[in-house]
Amino acid sequence: MVADDLGNVYVAGYSSGNGYATIKYTQQNYCIQEIDCDLNGDCKIDFVDLAILANKWLVANFLSDLEKLCDAWLECNLAYKGDCW
């Protein structure tokens, strides 16, 4: 059994014949890498993050934060992409 840097666990075995098996266990819904403007921590940039940012309207650095959010719009860093949208 071995685990890699992404949290994947591999279990391997063999039989008395010529066959062998390797099983990969992976945790779903974990973030591969944080996104700077992911304001709610769900590893996705979406309307929830925009709503949180909108509450800071006219606060210092709002426009630069809005620019970062727009650049990363709909970015998703979940390991299992099927859970992104």
Main attributes?
single chain; 85 residues; alpha+beta; Type 1 dockerin domain; 3-stranded antiparallel beta sheet; 3 strands; rod-shaped
Assigned CATH class of the largest domain: Mainly Alpha
CATH topology of the largest domain: Type 1 dockerin domain
**Shape descriptor:** rod-shaped
Query: Whole-number average pLDDT?
Result: 86
Radius of gyration: 20 Å
The DSSP helix count reads 2
What is the strand arrangement across the widest sheet?
1-2-3
Q: What is the domain tally? A: 2
Structure, explained:
The protein contains 2 helices and 3 strands, in the order βββαα. The chain is of the alpha+beta class and 85 residues long. It has 2 domains: 1-30, no CATH class; 31-85, Type 1 dockerin domain (Orthogonal Bundle), CATH 1.10.1330. It has a 3-stranded antiparallel sheet with strand order 1-2-3, with no helix packed on it. Strand 1 and strand 2 (9-14) form a beta hairpin.
